[in-house]
Structures are given as C-alpha cells and as structure tokens.
Design a protein that fits this description.
This protein has about 350 residues and is an alpha+beta fold. The chain has four domains: about 70 residues, no CATH class; about 80 residues, no CATH class; about 110 residues, Nucleotidyltransferase, domain 5; about 60 residues, no CATH class. Helix content is about 30%, strand content about 35%. The longest helix has 15 residues.
C-alpha cells in the first residue's frame, strides 16, 4: 500500500508525519512515523531532534546520509508566543495541595513529564490525543514539564504503559494510603456505568441493561461517602453482570487496607450470595431492591397498605412519603430492615 505524508500546522510551524496503510487481522490500520519540522516540503527536507536535518521521500524513504553534514547549523527557530498561564498554573497548585503530584510521579518514572502534561491536557481540553502536542506548545505546562513529549506515537506508548496492571495497582495503593487515615472506617458508594463502544478488544461485549442492548465496557466506581471523592475503579467486559463483581471489589479494597464501615449499593448488586458475603464480612449495607426480586413483591404485598396510612407519612426531601420499617431475616442468622415507602405526590400524579 502507498505511503503518504501528512502535514499539520501548529502555532505557525509546519510538522509532518508519514502514514503507511497496512492490514492486520483483516482490518486496515495506519502506522504513522513522525518526521519532524518541515524545512522544504517540495524537496522532502525535514528536521527532528533525533535525526537533525534529513531528506525523506515516499519512494526513497530516508536517504542522503551526507545531507546532515552539508546542512549543519541550528534547527529552524521556534516562535516565541505568549503562553496560556492561568489554567495550568491553577491545576498545578491544586494537585500539589492535594498531594497527588508525588503519587503520579511514581507511576511512570521515565515519562513523568509526559504523563503530567497529558493529564493537564485531558482536564483542560476536550480534543483528541492528536491535538495534545499542539496544545502543549501554547500552555504554561510546557514550562512545568519541559521534557514532555506528546506526539501521537509518544502518547500511544504512554497509554499502553498506563494500562499495565502493575501501574494500576501501584497507583491505587499509594492513593488510598494518602486519602484514607488508618483509623477511619470508610463508607463507600458502589455503582457502575456502561461505556458504549465498538472497539475490538476483550473488554467490549454485548450488554443488556434495563432492556437496552449495547456494545460496551462496564466501568465500576467506588466513591467515599463522606467526602465524595472517587476511591477506586475497575473496568469489566460489557457482558459481565454487576451482581458478579461486588465481592471481588470488596476483596480488592480490603487487600489495599481499606476498612469498610458501611456500603451503599446500587440495586444491580443485590443477590443472596452478595448479601451473605456482606454479612460474613461484617459490613452493614443499604441497597435498593429491584422490582423483579421475590422479596420486593412480598414486602409490597404485605406492607403497602401500612405505608398508605396517615400515621406512616413523613416529610422527606420536600415530599410526603409513607414509610414502614420491616424486620427481615438475613443469612447467617442475622436480621436486617426493609423500608417500604410510598411517595404520595408521585402516586397521585400517576
């Protein structure tokens, strides 16, 4: 397949990449190679820090080894533009006060500047990764992270390294140690959401969530109930149901020395096995019962009329709600409480 040179302009300077279409597993992919600054496009002359001045043509590739000697001298001058100072400086100061900078520096020691610069870009901008290098040229982050390299190839390598399981665990171990005092029991909120995509990876699968069919990856998030900060996340294949992920999540948090005081769970995590596991772990929990559960139907049939009585009505969140508390048996001989509630305003509207 024929290669072609793509030229883009960044802050008044032209840069070039060469794309060579290839076939992999029956799919067409591009394998870009960064050429550097364009000196003379018609003659195929470019400049990069690695090669200095050189000549490249689609037909001949990299050629003329003596060209660098004849074309010695400083590289093409960079334009000195006013840098966008405020957003990068504010974010830098915020991360330092949150004591996150030291944690982030330990993740990819050889690419620290690139990692932090990419993080700043993703927080401040909404563009694709291909625009990160251009953004860096006009941001104060260029001064903060002078060794950052955000060309497409460098970003791809960095993202691959960040996806390593060892980096993942190293971050959360350090982060949780910094965020949670040893003597504090943590109340956690656990929920998940779908990340729809059709990218061909082992994480993409067909999911049926509340009757909606989609190709997706499931993102599970654990949040600190007290401060509202995210504590932990995991990604699962889209066809893995939420109910099967709770016990693994609890075990991972405990392995990282998180002392769980209580848990608020989405209805999708309720099952007999999960209730039994929470009882065995001694973790109090609060969850919503899904309408298809046998216990839900039983409680509604037996206690809905009581929730409709005037004596059960309380003011909750600016609404009138009838609430009845019922004792229910749990595994391992324990007892729990179910709350049967009727929203009177909603009931009259419907």
């Amino acid at each position: 397949m024929v290669s072609h040179i793509h030229v883009s302009s960044k802050k008044g300077t032209s840069y070039a990449e060469v794309y060579t279409p290839q076939r992999k597993d029956g799919r067409k992919i591009n394998d870009p190679v960064y050429l550097g600054k364009v000196v003379d496009l018609e003659k195929g002359i470019f400049y990069s820090r690695k090669r200095g001045y050189f000549r490249y043509t689609v037909d001949g590739g990299f050629e003329d080894s003596d060209f660098n000697k004849a074309k010695s001298g400083p590289p093409p001058p960079e334009e000195n533009l006013i840098l966008d100072f405020g957003p990068a400086y504010l974010l830098w100061q915020t991360l330092q006060k949150m004591e996150l900078i030291d944690i982030l520096r330990r993740l990819c020691p050889k690419r620290t500047d690139s990692l932090l610069a990419l993080l700043f870009y993703r927080i401040q901008e909404r563009g694709g990764y291909s625009m990160a290098s251009e953004w860096l040229e006009g941001s104060y982050a260029k001064v903060l992270f002078s060794n950052a390299q955000l060309t497409s190839q460098r970003v791809s390598g960095l993202l691959k390294e960040l996806g390593n399981e060892a980096v993942f665990r190293r971050f959360f171990t350090a982060y949780l140690r910094a965020e949670i005092p040893k003597d504090r029991k943590v109340g956690i909120l656990v929920d998940s959401t779908g990340l729809p995509n059709s990218i061909d990876t082992y994480l993409t699968a067909v999911n049926n969530h509340n009757g909606v069919i989609s190709e997706e990856t499931r993102l599970l998030l654990v949040v600190d109930k007290q401060g509202g900060k995210p504590l932990f996340f995991r990604y699962n294949p889209g066809n893995v149901p939420d109910v099967s992920t709770l016990q693994t999540t609890i075990l991972e948090l405990q392995a990282m020395h998180v002392d769980i005081g209580m848990a608020v769970l989405d209805a999708g995590y309720y099952s007999d096995k999960n209730v039994e596991a929470m009882c065995d772990a001694g973790i109090p929990f609060l969850t919503k019962l899904a309408p298809n559960r046998k216990l839900y139907k039983q409680l509604l049939e037996e206690h809905q009329s009581k929730a409709l009585d005037a004596v059960s009505v309380v003011k909750y969140g600016g609404r009138l709600v009838g609430i009845v508390r019922v004792t229910v048996p749990l595994p391992r001989g324990k007892e729990g409480h179910a709350y049967v509630a009727v929203d009177h305003d909603r009931r009259h509207q419907e």
